[in-house]
Amino acid sequence: MKQGQMRSSMEIAYIILKGAAVAVAAAASITDLKTRKIPNKLTFSAMLAGLACNLVLFGFKGLIGSFLGILMGFTAFIFFAIGALKAGDVKLYMAIGAFTGWRFCGYAIVYSILVGGVAAFIFMLLRKSGRTALKNLKNYFVNMFYTHHFYMYQSQDTSSYFSFGCCILVGLVITWMVL
């Protein structure tokens, strides 16, 4: 195989892996909106598929990259620990990392958190109880700053739901466009 052909086949392989990650995130977003959960069957099978695809396409080096991507996705556990994400969101990041590797997954985490922050702020403003929610959130951060005691944020409005799976999908697409 010539150098040009090898490069184009590698580019096609990366497009397939990124496309698979977007497909998994889209399926997770749909189920998150419908059921308020991202199923383990989806995330764990996607992790296995990502590992297998990287092994087949890139050999042992691809498998290592896939494992590093899963580890990068697991770093989102920090946000789970403070109550900002649910466990399904973290596992979705891990599945994305299994397909795309650590670097792409890291950028996807950053972009999706930015998208989520903007979306949450807009939703807060649009809801009737938005100002109260913003005030409570401000008090939460001020309290954490002064007491140096970190605890999970408990929203006063339990009737509203915010699907972060959709933000992960949008952040993933932005990452693909940027990188």
From TrEMBL:
- Give the highest taxon in the source lineage: Bacteria
The protein's matches in InterPro entries, at most eight in alphabetical order, are given as:
Prepilin_IV_endopep_pep (IPR000045), Prepilin_peptidase/N-MTase (IPR050882)
Where is coiled-coil annotated? none
| Keywords associated with the record | Hydrolase, Membrane, Transmembrane, Transmembrane helix
| EC number assigned by the record | 3.4.23.-
Q: Name one GO molecular function term.
A: hydrolase activity
Q: Domain Prepilin type IV endopeptidase peptidase, which positions?
A: 22-120
The answer to whether UniProt assigns keyword Hydrolase to this entry is: yes
Q: Which Pfam families does this chain map to? A: Peptidase_A24
Please give the start and end residues of each transmembrane region.
Answer: 12-30, 42-60, 67-87, 107-126, 161-178
Q: Which family does it belong to?
A: Belongs to the peptidase A24 family.
Query: What name does the UniProt record give this protein?
Result: A24 family peptidase
**Organism of this sequence:** Ventrimonas faecis
